């Protein structure tokens, strides 16, 4: 990942997600990293014209497809959310969902969901862990963990079931 604090793209602070094949013994990249996502659709770029985020990646292979979940927008904003992109390969190209984000704030319920990670329960149910703002009215770095089931619709699109 290239963090927006140091990564400038056309003069805009931009966080981007990269991937690559790694050597299983050294965990060093084999070759150059590949750009997987960059903030390039309107809902990812409207929050702040000088700072843009695609960060916190979580990759899941399911039924022969790769699902890349990532966090979008400033972590202390209501618009901080989890989006999904899908590919036939772990190195893309990834196609972002048109109905992103798949996990977003719910008014007077929770705000700032982000940085999710997948896990499978003992019964085989797929879950995700993510954080939200502790106080809906006082968004920021004070966050708490949440869990939600993950499902797939009839077209194979990922859904987070909250």
Radius of gyration: 16 Å
Helix content: under 10%
Largest sheet composition? 4 strands, antiparallel
Distance between the termini: 28 Å
Q: How many structurally independent domains? A: 1
* Quaternary organisation of the protein chains: single chain
User: What are the secondary-structure elements, in order, as H or E?
Assistant: EEEEHEEEEEEEEE
What does this 3D model show about the protein?
The chain has one helix at 42-45; strands at residues 8-9, 12-14, 17-19, 34-37, 51-52, 54-62, 65-72, 81-87, 95-96, 114-120, 126-133, 143-152, 158-161. With 162 residues, it is an all-beta fold.
Question: Mind sketching the topology for me?
Answer:
Elements: E1 8-9, E2 12-14, E3 17-19, E4 34-37, H1 42-45, E5 51-52, E6 54-62, E7 65-72, E8 81-87, E9 95-96, E10 114-120, E11 126-133, E12 143-152, E13 158-161
Q: Main traits of this protein?
A:
162 residues; mainly beta; Tachylectin-2, Chain A; four-stranded antiparallel beta sheet; 1 helix; 2% helix
Compose a concise summary of this entry.
The protein has 162 residues and is an all-beta fold. The protein is built from one helix and 13 strands, in the order E-E-E-E-H-E-E-E-E-E-E-E-E-E. The protein has a single domain (8-161), classed as 5 Propeller (Tachylectin-2, Chain A), CATH 2.115.10.20.
């Amino acid at each position: 990942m290239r963090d927006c604090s140091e990564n400038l793209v056309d003069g805009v602070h931009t966080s981007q997600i990269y991937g690559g094949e790694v050597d299983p013994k050294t965990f060093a990249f084999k070759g150059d990293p590949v750009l997987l996502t960059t903030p390039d659709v309107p809902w990812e770029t409207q929050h702040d014209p000088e700072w843009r985020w695609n960060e916190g990646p979580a990759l899941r292979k399911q039924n022969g497809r790769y699902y890349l979940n990532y966090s979008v927008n400033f972590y202390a904003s209501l618009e901080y959310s989890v989006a999904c992109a899908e590919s036939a390969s772990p190195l893309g190209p990834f196609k972002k969902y048109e109905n992103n984000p798949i996990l977003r704030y719910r008014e007077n319920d929770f705000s700032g969901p982000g940085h999710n990670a997948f896990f499978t329960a003992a019964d085989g149910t797929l879950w995700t862990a993510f954080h939200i703002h502790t106080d809906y009215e006082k968004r920021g770095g004070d966050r708490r963990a949440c869990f939600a089931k993950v499902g797939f619709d009839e077209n194979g699109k990922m859904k987070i079931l909250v």
